[in-house]
From TrEMBL:
GO terms under biological process: thiamine biosynthetic process
Protein name, as recorded: Thiamine pyrimidine synthase
Pfam families registered for this protein in UniProt: NMT1
Database matches in SUPFAM superfamilies: Periplasmic binding protein-like II
PANTHER family: 4-AMINO-5-HYDROXYMETHYL-2-METHYLPYRIMIDINE PHOSPHATE SYNTHASE THI11-RELATED
Span of the signal peptide: 1-28
Main function: Responsible for the formation of the pyrimidine heterocycle in the thiamine biosynthesis pathway. Catalyzes the formation of hydroxymethylpyrimidine phosphate (HMP-P) from histidine and pyridoxal phosphate (PLP). The protein uses PLP and the active site histidine to form HMP-P, generating an inactive enzyme. The enzyme can only undergo a single turnover, which suggests it is a suicide enzyme.
Organismal lineage: Bacteria, Pseudomonadati, Pseudomonadota, Alphaproteobacteria, Hyphomicrobiales
Length: 333
């Protein structure tokens, strides 16, 4: 009788524990807030912070259930963010002045690469060294490229235009094939993404857009004003995770970050050396003189003022817009 009574009590206790555990488990699952993050392109080094954080479980630790999507160009990702089809975009944030001029409500809430990394690749042994040297030559680019608003302005700095330079617009998937097959003399891209990829089939050097005074804040995180206002805690967590990830990568874990990208994209046939070189170059473009010594993610008002001027000079926007509308540092600590 006594044993039966004890057994009955144990059964009741176990049942009570199970009843309590159910809601607790459900609550833990509900605590992970879903978030969709759309990248600029197919996997490359600038995505290291996202994929490393996913691989190491840092998003989950922060209470975020993150869906990381590959993109088809910064411009396309920005459109999806503005349409509310994704929560956050990791893109070339220098596109924001023109986008907001055209009605977008997106703004940058964290910067990764703050220095202008737009570049034109040419053969490593090419005599081309400046814009004017491209007369009579051909360039390949895709329509949603961050280069798009600046092509004509950049050509103008060398006394050129599209009648003296053949600018070929192709699908994003055809850009590399066109360049490596030498069907174009130059590739309009970014130095960190393109130089390591070109090394195997067409070793190249970079002619930087900043050489002619173009200021274009590079990669960062963007969301609509509605999302920034309505999901402050989630975005704060996202920024903290990315600060942690990029600090870890910068402090000697580049190879681990490259491995994380490969693990997260096992079917992409990625080259670890290319990824590692892209990550190293991404880190080289982290800072401008105005952001040096500041936390990862910090954006300089002075840099954004210069970016606005470049957009005005390129005819991408009208003068008079307050650059402060393009970004916020509220999540940077």
């Amino acid at each position: 009788m006594k044993m039966t009574s004890i057994a009955a009590r144990l059964v009741r206790a176990a049942a009570a524990t199970a009843l309590l555990a159910g809601p607790l488990a459900a609550g833990a699952a509900a605590a992970e807030e879903k978030m969709t993050i759309r990248l600029d392109f197919s996997p490359w080094g600038v995505h290291a912070g996202m994929h490393l954080a996913k691989e190491k479980g840092w998003f989950k630790d922060a209470g975020l259930d993150v869906d990381i999507q590959d993109g088809r160009g910064s411009g396309n990702t920005l459109q999806l963010v503005n349409a509310g089809q994704v929560d956050v975009g990791q893109i070339q944030v220098g596109l924001l002045p023109q986008a907001r001029e055209n009605g977008s409500t997106a703004k940058a809430f964290a910067g990764i690469d703050k220095r202008t990394d737009l570049a034109v690749l040419v053969d490593q042994d090419s005599p081309v060294a400046k814009v004017a040297d491209f007369k009579g030559k051909s360039l390949v680019v895709f329509a949603a490229s961050p280069w798009a608003p600046f092509i004509d302005y950049w050509l103008k700095q060398g006394g050129l235009d599209r009648t003296t330079v053949n600018v070929m617009f192709v699908d994003p998937s055809a850009v590399w094939g066109t360049y490596t097959a030498k069907r174009a003399d130059g590739l309009m891209s970014t130095e960190p993404s393109a130089i390591p990829v070109a090394a195997a089939n067409r070793p190249s050097k970079a002619i930087l857009a900043e050489d002619v005074g173009i200021t274009f804040p590079s990669y960062g995180l963007v969301a609509t004003e509605k999302t920034i206002e309505g999901r402050k805690e989630a975005l704060k967590k996202l920024v903290e995770v990315q600060q942690k990830a990029w600090t870890y990568i910068r402090d000697g874990h580049v190879d681990e970050a490259a491995d994380a990208i490969i693990k997260q994209r096992p079917n992409a046939k990625l080259d670890k050396k290319v990824l590692a070189d892209q990550i190293k170059l991404t880190i080289d473009f982290f800072d401008t003189p105005n952001t040096k010594g500041k936390p990862i993610g910090y954006q300089s008002p002075e840099d954004w003022a210069k970016a606005a001027k470049s957009a005005v000079d390129a005819g991408a926007i009208k003068p008079g817009t307050d650059p402060a509308t393009y970004f916020t540092n509220e999540f940077i600590q």
